[in-house]
Amino acid sequence: MVFKPHHRTVGQKGFHRRTFLRGIAGFGSAVAIAKLTGCTPSTSEGGSESGGEPLKLGLIAAITGPSALSGESIKRGLEVAIDEINANGGVMGGRPIELVIRDDESTPARGVAAARELIEREQVAAIFGGLDSPVSLAMLPVLHELETPYMGVWAAATGITRNDFDPNYAFRVSANDNIVDSFLIRYAKEETGASKVGLVLINNPWGESNQVGFEEWAPEYDVEIVGVERFNDGDTDISAQLGRLQSSGAETLLLVANAAPGAQMMRSLERLAWDVPVVSHWGISGGRFPELAGEETARKVTFVQTYSFFGEQSPVGERVLAALQEKYDLAGPADILAPVGTANAYDAMHLMALALDTAESVEGVVLREAFYNLPAYEGLIKTYEQPFTPDNHDALNEDDYILVQWDGDQIVPVAS
Amino acid sequence: MWPQLILSGMAIGSMYGLVALGFQITYAVSNTMNLSQGAFVMVGAVICYCLNIAWGVPAIAAVPITLALCAALGLVIERWIVRPFARKGSQSWLLSTIALGIIAENVAMLTFGKEVRGYPSPLAETTVSILNFGVFPLEIVIPVVGLATAVGLWLLFNRTLWGKAFRAASENPMTAQILGIPVTRLIALSFGLSTALAGLAGMLIAPIANVSATMGTLLGVKAFATAIIGGLSNPWGVMVAGVLYGVVESIAAGMLGGSYREIIGFLVVIAVLAVRPNGLFGRTNIKKV
After folding, report:
1. Chain A 319-378, CB below 8 Å of chain B: which residues?
2. How far is A72 from chain B (nearest CA, A)?
3. Contacts of residue B5 in chain A, CB cutoff 8 Å?
4. What is the pLDDT of residues A72-115, one digit of tens each?
């Protein structure tokens, strides 16, 4: 290879003043036309239907990594709602909503950095959160420092909404661990007839936080916790721990774990040939629980969700299902990645739009107050009548949870 | 409860033993080890999963292809990751093989993905009852394969001419070379054999442990621990140590709870080494001056 000195001379492939000026003029008029017609390019969802300046809202969720499906399902719920809102003229008198998405990779530090970037640089009015409670908890200080409302649509840690910040900027349309724990204990008592339960918890802070909840609620329902067993993510056989619960007389097991360890727990029950009712938090709804546990075994667990697209749908349900099918080319409800993420996000986005309309401002302080004065909203999960009060930042409560089970690779409501 | 704890421990323990045999082989021949053995358990499982489940290659072809690929990787590891350091008398192969394991894990995350996948197998679908305790048939196959491999290796090392050559290469590589033993090639072969064994272990445990990019990490560490307490000098000792380690873990989890499984397990490793520095079945290395 020979090195050739590269001299540019005028008249060769160099700089032409005329071309440059023509380019500038062309670009300028393109921008002008775009502004006139309102076709400004947007980051994700650009509504061209309503003419005002786009109003940016952020989503910080797992877009890559083991929980990537959760991020996609949340995005879909938000986008379907945004399409509806923008088609109806946007918010605050004609401003279309634009969603700006950042990937937290399930890592708290990335979530914190993304929150600061979205608020300070992108100037988003509020931020939607993802599946990982640790990420949401880590973002809270930044959101409060910058006075920006947070809307949780999945992560269920009790401390996200029931935090020590005053004023509290964290709102949620999703489950709350503490309420789920009470719900599961009540189900164990009333439906499986258990007065003695055993806890099987993943060995991490999420497991711990639910242990606190279970221990708080067990006496309320006159249920005795006869054993608490922990196991790790990679454990292949936890029959030793389950054997302890069996000998201490547990009549129903309460499970808190994600899909892969949860599946190992169910397979270990088979080793003991112990036919015991298992009631689970929603961790097993992500991942590939039926593939890992086996379809027959997967069917034996009853777990909690906020919504199911199976069975008879309300008019809103039918409308959202149709929109999802069309927008993402889905064959039916079985193709919806993670129903809770999509359903919670859909309702949360509509509540956010109502709050923006009520506040008539993107100022965090004003927007936060507006959440307490929302008009009634007929949503997907339920009709929300004053979803948030200064004492309660969780729009969903025990009455809104439903019990479901796996049927093949679909999540269907328990026939009760 | 006791038979259950012991049976469950033996099943898990024989997985550790099978992986630990890979450490033993290369150590016996070259005094070096591939510390990414755990990652190659994962590589074996992932390759076989892709061939057999994702691309529909029948198991009868997928298994030998996986073994051959793993063995080939072993040769590459020896040539490029271990030999350049070991030849200079440096111990840097310790770090380079660990680094390779981390690279392998991350490559798997990029290509195979971070999701945990199930490996369907008729041998791990329903349990069979032994002493009133359910065991997946595969959990009986694993110790059988493990013990057979251990016995096979012992016979290879102690009853064949090849074995003599292997031992000569280990005890005095220089003299062995002079006597016409292809020491370099034997060492490469031992690495190929050890990675193939990791691949075999990966395929065997996949239906029980599931397939994921991180499946080999803790397994590799525990296998290394059992190789050390087994004594590294003979294969059946390593296999027995693996089973014992599994039983200790299982009893700890059963008596004290799941949080104590690793704590008690590794405490026992330290205790064994304190009492018997050469491991349970190891021979003292006597250096004749």
Report:
1. none
2. 15
3. 240, 243
4. 999 999 999 999 999 999 999 899 999 999 999 888 999 999 99
What's the CA gap between A258 and A341, in Å, rounded?
15
pLDDT at B228 over 50: yes
Among the ranges given (A304-308, A391-395, B133-137), the one the predictor scored with the smallest mean pLDDT:
B133-137
E strands present in A238-277: 252-256
Q: Which tokens belong to B283?
A: 């021979």
The range of the structural domain enclosing residue A203 comes to: 178-305
Same domain, A223 and A115: no
- Mean pLDDT over each residue of chain A, to the nearest integer: 87
Considering the four listed CATH numbers 3.30.1490, 1.10.3470, 1.10.540, 1.10.490, the one that applies to the domain covering B2-275 is 1.10.3470
Answer whether residue A230 is part of any domain. yes
A167 cis-preceded (ω within 30 degrees of 0): yes
Clarify whether residues A65 and A161 are in a common domain: yes
Confidence of residue A15 (pLDDT cuts 50, 70, 90): very low
Single-letter residue type at B140 = I
The answer to whether position A331 is within a domain reads yes
CATH number for A254: 3.40.50.2300
State whether residue A311 is helix, strand or coil: coil
CA distances from A301 to A196, A233, A293, A295, A338 (A): 18, 19, 11, 11, 17
To the nearest whole Å, the CA of B171 is away from the closest chain A CA by 39
- Inspect the interface and report whether the beta carbons of B127 and A273 lie closer than 8 Å: yes
Measure A240 CA to nearest chain B CA, in Å.
4
Q: How far is CA B140 from CA A237, B8, B63, B204, in A?
A: 14, 10, 19, 11
- A183 plus A261 within the same structural domain: yes
B212 and chain A in contact, CB less than 8 A: yes
- pLDDT of residue A59 exceeding 90: yes
Query: Residues of chain A with pLDDT > 70: what percent?
Result: 87
ipTM of the assembly?
Answer: 0.84
Alpha helices (runs of H) in A88-176, residue ranges in sequence order:
108-120, 133-145, 158-161
Q: A346 and A374: one domain?
A: yes
Does residue A184 surpass a pLDDT of 70? yes
Using CB atoms, pick whichever of A230, A234, A260 lies closest to residue B257.
A230
Q: Mark yes or no for CB contact A260/B208 under 8 Å.
A: no
Query: Do B127 and A266 touch, CB atoms closer than 8 A?
Result: no
pLDDT confidence tier of residue B116, bands split at 50, 70 and 90: confident
End-of-domain residue from the set A285, A305, A325: A305
Of A305, A327, A354, the one marking the end of a domain is A305
A31 occurs within a structural domain: no
Q: Hey, is the C-beta of B259 within 8 angstroms of any chain A C-beta? A: yes
Q: Domain check: are A207 and A323 in the same one? A: no
Sheet of strand A301-305, all strands in order from the earlier edge strand to the far edge: A224-231, A196-202, A252-256, A278-280, A301-305, A402-407, A410-413
Structural domain count, chain A: 2
In tens, the pLDDT along A127-168 reads: 999 988 889 999 999 999 999 999 999 999 999 999 999 999
Tell me the domain boundaries of chain B. Answer: 2-275
